[in-house]
Amino acid sequence: MGLMPVSEELLRLKDARLDLLGRPDALRDAVREHFRVHGAVWNLCAQLCTDLKAMPVEDASVAWPEDQSPYLPVGRITAQAQDAWSRSNITRVDDGMSFNPWHGLAAHQPLGSVMRARKAAYPRSVAFRQEHSGCPIIEPGRQRA
């Protein structure tokens, strides 16, 4: 999978340099300022496994050759200009939401041994975060009771 920038505002940032020296929040501040003014568009892309020998699903150390399987857009993410960082968003999104790729369609669930090893980490991470933050955690798309 790959998330590829499409909008001109993002493409212009490709070789931009950011002075981080003595500024522990420089990256967050730059992102916040950028999205305060600009929206953004990304293509969500995937490679299709066209040859199990050249593209082994069970060996995550092998990069799949793009000449045999180029990245294909399978979706698009669009974000409007917004305040990309606020204490209320941190509480609601970062502290209060979780994501688990195994809760999607069976046909879209992750493949390979690395992903199977990660499967147990998702619910444990949610349980740890909920225990230590005291916030109920909800997965996107699920309604609160």
How many beta-strand runs?
3
Q: What is the count of DSSP helices, taking H or I runs of 4+ residues? A: 5
Major β-sheet annotation? 3 strands, antiparallel
Tell me the count of domains.
2
Helix and strand run: EHHEEHHH
In which order are the strands of the major sheet placed?
1-2-3
Approximate shape:
globular
Output the structural class.
alpha+beta
Radius of gyration: 19 Å
What labels would you give this structure?
single chain; 145 residues; alpha+beta; 3-stranded antiparallel beta sheet; 13% strand; globular
Could you please describe the fold and organization of this structure?
This protein is α+β, with helices and mostly antiparallel strands and 145 residues long. The chain folds into two domains: 1-84, no CATH class; 86-145, no CATH class. 30% of the residues lie in helices and 13% in strands. The protein contains five helices and three strands, in the order βααββααα. Strands 1-2-3 form a three-stranded antiparallel beta sheet. The longest helix is centred in the last third of the chain and has 13 residues, at 121-133. The mean pLDDT is 89.
